[in-house]
Amino acid sequence: MTARIYLNQPQITEIRFMALIFHLTYKDAWEAARPAGEYAAPSLAEEGFIHCSKDVPQLLKVAARLYPGETGLLVLDVDLEELKSPLKNEPSRSGEIYPHIYGMLNADAVVQERALEVGADGLHFLVD
After folding, report:
1. Using CA atoms, how far apart are residues 39 and 41, in angstroms rounded to an integer?
2. In the 3-class helix/strand/coil scheme, how is 55-73 assigned residue by residue?
3. Helical H runs in 18-122?
4. How far is the C-alpha of 61 from the C-alpha of 21, rounded, in Å?
5. Which terminus of the chain has a lower count of CB atoms within 10 Å, N or C?
6. Which residue numbers in the chain have pLDDT < 70?
7. Reduced to 3 states, what is the DSSP secondary structure of residue 32?
8. Is 51 in contact with 98 (CB distance < 8 Å)?
9. pTM
10. Whole-number pLDDT of residue 7
11. pLDDT tens across 54-86, in order?
């Protein structure tokens, strides 16, 4: 086996692993808020925070419970290093821990937007 050395190739100087949380919203609501550079879910005014999920399985459980069969949903992948508002991990009534954003969600913290579709079985699935 021969090793090849390539000269004058850019070197990776930093590898960054993002810590993400996930927010479920309506596509129209996010698209209306994005140009302003920040987003407030209705829960921010009603409860004082924006609901999020710690991972995709948790998000899919939320979608099944709160939005059964609904279309037009979007998942926002939020980079915690870029998030400007305070974040708290808090228990729900069931005792499961959920991340809550206590303030506006700055649009530049959203690193990916993904459609949440509904399958023939009526369950949501994430489109990458």
Report:
1. 7
2. CHHHHHHHHHHHCCCCCCE
3. 27-33, 42-47, 56-66
4. 15
5. N
6. 1-16
7. helix
8. yes
9. 0.85
10. 57
11. 999 999 999 999 999 999 999 999 999 999 999
